[in-house]
């Protein structure tokens, strides 16, 4: 009997130990530890942060607030809603105020500029500091620790590996602070194409390259947009990015707007379907819901930034007003309310919304306020939240609480509330129903705003109001599993970002985004190894939004190493079989000139969509909006004023090339960022292709016939500037389209393939 008992002890005890022991195991990674629960979440933590792993019900949890007990917000078994509510209730007002901040633009490593000041590491510029590219800057340490900021906007990164290591450094830094809330990193779109780069199906890159959103929209295929979102989100998460400051789903009803190329076109139905597909692609993890591969989508810009009066942009005071001569706000809401807020996937709706800088003139039917959208309680609370039931994060566009000195400088954008103090602007934004301040690193004005609310409404009201925003913000961090494991395997990042299959998918999308407008006499496809003449393009000197100047230059418009793989390049036009001309759409200005103001004018000039001289004969006698406190007039008309595009030499290039080529084909490839008047160049071109951000190699694959053109115009090309002036800024597809020599109208949903005008199911569905 003793032997039997001894045998039972020997055989049963090990089983009991295994059965009752922890159901998790820990592994050492580079710079952090990884804890895998057998039946649950994978956790990541940095030993130097000082947090411990708690074992409850044999499962592992992170003790983020270091109190030795499992709090509801630390329990990954609970719902996101329960966890966010618990954490918000435990946070101090200062911690919530920091959560409501979204950082100014951060580059890795930081170099500094005149807008955000110098960037230092241990008190020295990066180059002199001895710091690693992945180290946190002095300013980052301050706003993460002292200001409790947890939302960081990343711009350029040195390499994917550096981005991953910076992420790990930032997460380790905040993990040991306060409640252990992780950093939620975001990015503006970063998947644009390098035209000069070559594509190799077996090679990777820094990140996959795709056409612009407008280019993908030209495919008229929402499935392609969703594929982009699915791939881009994987690359984002590999870089440590859990929020996309995109998509830009403004309805592009104003053809002169400088941000036209960031949109999905001017048609409400197409833009709505594309918006839905984009958000579904970004937010859905592999199982269709929220998870480790999900990226929060911040759709912009509510309630639609497209109808800018005269096409002037609201980054400046001269473009502060959106106008609605067609009384057509409803179409601008559709990409949001019927697209991004009604997803097919399990995430339901876009998790965040960004209003635009604009004053949506006379749209406030409750209070009658004409103030910037983020300041407008009707637009944010009555319309977005109450009418359309949106309870996600609303984050202002960047820098709207800062001061500004004139309508033509790139400074703050407090349109309609210029008279308020910085703290008063924060308070008005909170009262309007917003949750977060874009581009603000400083907690102090948010605390001041809180105190204003306490004085007006009492402590209980303001504490509850702050917790409402905190819950919304925290849910987006919980949903993407950052509380469980915010750390990255650097080697996995380097293997994921820009891997060959992602590069190949982006390249295929590029091929599907180029629209063929003209193919006279079926000159295309042009057989390979023919002789081609490529004239140089003159680029005039210019200044960007930030005032940085680019000197004039002559340039070859293509990567000739790519061209010579398809054709024999000749210097003598008479020896060529055809000419290949690369140009860009007219650069018709921004709609304001300081020189006009200095000469006694009001400063307002037309934005032109043509290359040649333009006089605004058909412009409005009186503007629909005005009244900036920085101006002593309200009429911003530019009627009878003239403007000449800075790249009028592109028109000369096409004409001159046609002249020297005689009867030989002239193939014109146009990079477009907005509509343009083709009447000037179409008669001189044998074939025309328009592209919205592709590699030169993709263009050559189309020109040579390796691939057949299939894209359609996601917007109208106007017949002339008269129809541009007479159209309504808020109404889609209301221009007279250009009709070419072959009687083809360059209208919405128009495009050619080798057989002629495309008239497939896409055209029938959307046109």
UniProtKB/TrEMBL annotation:
<dbReference type="GO" id="GO:0009251">
    <property type="term" value="P:glucan catabolic process"/>
</dbReference>
<dbReference type="GO" id="GO:0008422">
    <property type="term" value="F:beta-glucosidase activity"/>
</dbReference>
<dbReference type="InterPro" id="IPR002772">
    <property type="entry name" value="Glyco_hydro_3_C"/>
</dbReference>
<keyword id="KW-0732">Signal</keyword>
<dbReference type="InterPro" id="IPR036962">
    <property type="entry name" value="Glyco_hydro_3_N_sf"/>
</dbReference>
<comment type="similarity">
    <text>Belongs to the glycosyl hydrolase 3 family.</text>
</comment>
<keyword id="KW-0326">Glycosidase</keyword>
<keyword id="KW-0378">Hydrolase</keyword>
<feature type="domain" description="Glycoside hydrolase family 3 N-terminal">
    <location>
        <begin position="138"/>
        <end position="435"/>
    </location>
</feature>
<dbReference type="Pfam" id="PF00933">
    <property type="entry name" value="Glyco_hydro_3"/>
</dbReference>
<protein>
    <recommendedName>
        <fullName>beta-glucosidase</fullName>
        <ecNumber>3.2.1.21</ecNumber>
    </recommendedName>
</protein>
<dbReference type="InterPro" id="IPR036881">
    <property type="entry name" value="Glyco_hydro_3_C_sf"/>
</dbReference>
<dbReference type="InterPro" id="IPR017853">
    <property type="entry name" value="GH"/>
</dbReference>
<dbReference type="InterPro" id="IPR051915">
    <property type="entry name" value="Cellulose_Degrad_GH3"/>
</dbReference>
<feature type="domain" description="Glycoside hydrolase family 3 C-terminal">
    <location>
        <begin position="514"/>
        <end position="753"/>
    </location>
</feature>
<dbReference type="InterPro" id="IPR001764">
    <property type="entry name" value="Glyco_hydro_3_N"/>
</dbReference>
<dbReference type="Pfam" id="PF01915">
    <property type="entry name" value="Glyco_hydro_3_C"/>
</dbReference>
């Amino acid at each position: 009997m003793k032997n039997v008992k001894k045998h039972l002890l020997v055989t049963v005890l090990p089983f009991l130990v295994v059965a009752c022991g922890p159901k998790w195991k820990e592994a050492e990674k580079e710079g952090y530890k990884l804890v895998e629960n057998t039946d649950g979440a994978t956790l990541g933590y940095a030993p130097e942060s000082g947090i411990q792993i708690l074992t409850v019900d044999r499962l592992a949890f992170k003790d983020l607030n270091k109190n030795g007990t499992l709090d509801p917000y630390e329990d990954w078994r609970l719902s996101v809603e329960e966890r966010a509510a618990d954490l918000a209730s435990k946070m101090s007002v200062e911690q919530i105020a920091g959560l409501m901040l979204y950082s100014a633009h951060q580059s890795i490593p930081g170099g500094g500029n005149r807008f955000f000041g110098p960037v230092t590491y241990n008190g020295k510029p990066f180059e002199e500091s001895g710091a690693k590219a992945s180290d946190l800057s002095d300013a980052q340490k301050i706003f993460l620790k002292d200001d409790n900021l947890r939302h960081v906007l990343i711009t350029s990164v040195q390499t994917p590996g550096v981005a991953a290591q910076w992420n790990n450094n930032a997460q380790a830094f905040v993990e040991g602070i306060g409640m252990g809330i992780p950093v939620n990193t975001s990015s503006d779109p970063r998947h644009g194409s390098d035209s000069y780069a070559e594509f190799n199906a077996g090679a990777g890159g820094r990140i996959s390259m795709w056409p612009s959103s407008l280019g993908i929209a030209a495919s008229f295929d929402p499935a392609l947009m969703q594929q982009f979102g699915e791939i881009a989100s994987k690359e984002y998460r590999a870089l440590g990015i859990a929020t996309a400051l995109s998509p830009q789903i403004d309805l592009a009803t104003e053809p002169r707007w400088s941000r036209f190329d960031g949109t999905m076109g001017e048609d409400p139905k197409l833009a709505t379907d594309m918006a839905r597909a984009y958000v579904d692609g970004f937010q859905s993890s592999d199982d269709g819901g929220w998870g480790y591969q999900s990226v929060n989508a911040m759709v912009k810009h509510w309630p639609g930034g497209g109808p800018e009066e005269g096409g002037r942009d609201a980054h400046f005071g001269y473009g502060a007003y959106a106008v609605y001569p067609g009384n057509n706000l409803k179409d601008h809401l559709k990409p949001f309310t019927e697209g991004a807020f009604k997803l097919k996937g399990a995430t339901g709706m876009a998790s965040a919304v960004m209003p635009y800088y604009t004053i949506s003139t006379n749209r406030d039917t409750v209070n009658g306020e004409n103030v910037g959208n983020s300041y407008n309680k009707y637009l944010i609370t009555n319309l977005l939240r109450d009418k359309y039931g949106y309870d996600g994060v609303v984050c202002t566009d960047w820098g709207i609480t800062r001061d500004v000195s004139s309508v033509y400088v790139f400074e703050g954008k407090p349109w309609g509330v210029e008279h308020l103090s910085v703290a008063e602007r924060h308070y008005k934004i909170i009262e309007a129903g917003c949750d977060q301040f874009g581009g603000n690193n400083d907690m102090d004005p948010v605390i001041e705003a809180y105190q204003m609310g306490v004085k007006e409404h009492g402590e209980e009201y303001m504490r509850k109001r702050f917790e409402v925003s905190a819950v919304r913000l925290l849910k987006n961090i919980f949903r993407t599993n950052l509380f469980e494991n915010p750390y990255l395997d650097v080697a996995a990042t380097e293997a994921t970002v820009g891997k060959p299959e992602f590069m190949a998918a982006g390249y295929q999308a590029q091929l599907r985004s180029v629209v063929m407008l003209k193919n006279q006499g079926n000159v295309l496809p042009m057989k390979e190894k023919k002789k081609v003449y490529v004239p140089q393009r003159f680029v005039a000197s210019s200044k960007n939004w930030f005032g940085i100047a680019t000197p004039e230059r002559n340039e070859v418009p293509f990567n000739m190493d790519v061209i010579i793989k398809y054709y024999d390049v000749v210097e003598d036009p008479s020896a060529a079989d055809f000419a290949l001309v690369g140009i860009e759409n007219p650069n018709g200005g921004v709609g304001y000139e300081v020189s006009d103001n200095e000469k006694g004018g009001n400063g307002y000039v037309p934005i032109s969509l043509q290359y040649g001289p333009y006089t605004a004969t058909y412009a409005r006698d009186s503007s629909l909006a005005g009244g900036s406190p920085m101006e002593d007039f309200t009429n911003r008309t530019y009627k009878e004023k003239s403007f000449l595009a800075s790249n009028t030499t592109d028109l000369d290039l096409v004409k001159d090339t046609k002249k020297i080529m005689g009867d030989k084909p002239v193939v014109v490839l146009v990079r477009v960022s907005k509509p343009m008047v083709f009447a000037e160049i179409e008669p001189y071109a044998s074939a025309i292709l328009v592209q919205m951000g592709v590699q030169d190699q993709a263009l050559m694959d189309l020109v040579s016939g390796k691939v057949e053109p299939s894209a359609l115009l996601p917007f109208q090309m106007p017949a002339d500037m008269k129809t541009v002036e007479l159209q309504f800024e808020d109404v889609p597809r209301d221009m007279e389209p250009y009709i070419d020599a072959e009687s083809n109208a360059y209208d919405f949903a128009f495009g050619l393939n080798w057989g002629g005008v495309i008239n497939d199911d896409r055209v029938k569905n959307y046109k």
